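Table 4 source record.
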Amino acid sequence: MDQGNNQPLTIRSSDGQEFNLAHNIAMQSKLIKAAYEDQHELEIPVNINSVLLKPLLQAMELLYSMKDKEPSQKIIYETIQQKFFNNFSLEKLTQGFQAAIYLDVPKLENVFADKIAQLINKENINAIVELIDPNHWFLIEKFYYLHSLELRPSINNLLLNDNVQLVNALKINPVNINYKREKIIKQWKLSVNDLVDYNKDTTLINDDFDVQALHLQNCYLASIDGLKRIANINNCQELYLGNNQLTNLGNSLHGLNALKTLHLDNNQLTDLGDSLHGLNYIKDLNISNNQLTNLGDSLHGCIALWHLNLSGNQLTDLENKSFAGLNKLKKLYLSKNPLTEASKELLNQLTNRGVDVKF
């Protein structure tokens, strides 16, 4: 019987030992949560031995206690590694990694992936490949990538590039290695927070850091959350975010009112919403090769806009309101969009106003 959703749960290891865990802490595990919601029992058996399960549950308690304190993810992972897993052998770390995946606690998975990535070297890489399920290798490489960096890590640092055994374990045909690698990397879902957390150049967050142009293209970013952690980012005049994996911008650009150049080309943006509102000084805006279907009033307030590249999207119906107030616009690129005849007529009107339109 369900005895209330605030009662602690009893987690039973594979060798029969029982551990009490507060309900909210236990719910961090998607496995435990699913079992509880399915059976409404307060005793949950898991297929992990007690020696390993105890520190895993303790780590979950610490993760929960830190969730509202907002330290960097790196600090959270390092704190848990040092407190619970510092003395683990490489084999036991890989067991912990698989157990965290089994429990389905993403932050705990990251704790182990981060630690394993730090220990990798040319001498032990083949042994690690033998211990890790190939389907989970992308997490190890994510942290290997982050630990090998400056602000913009080089993809050439990836272990996948020169390790035949790893290529075989991942069942990659060498002919298709670059395509497969890109597919693996897309699972990382990196954010600017990750780049800042792992960047060894701490000047990025020092108060005296003066950033006029910030180059974050080709960083495999799925999110620009954390952009405002970069010191004096509000003074940035040029921001390059092309060739990433961005699907939306949220409000991460709000307040960056000094921006004059913004490149968002070759991402996966489907809708801009109000993400660009307030960018009154933007002159050069490149959003080419995304998946935009509608502009709406997304350019509202971009009154200084001079150069706008929207080529290679999915725009069909353009509206007058999308270009209202853009009186300084001189160049507009809209090639490779499935534009309607009505939209083309609107563009002809812009041409008559002196805008150089290419479609």
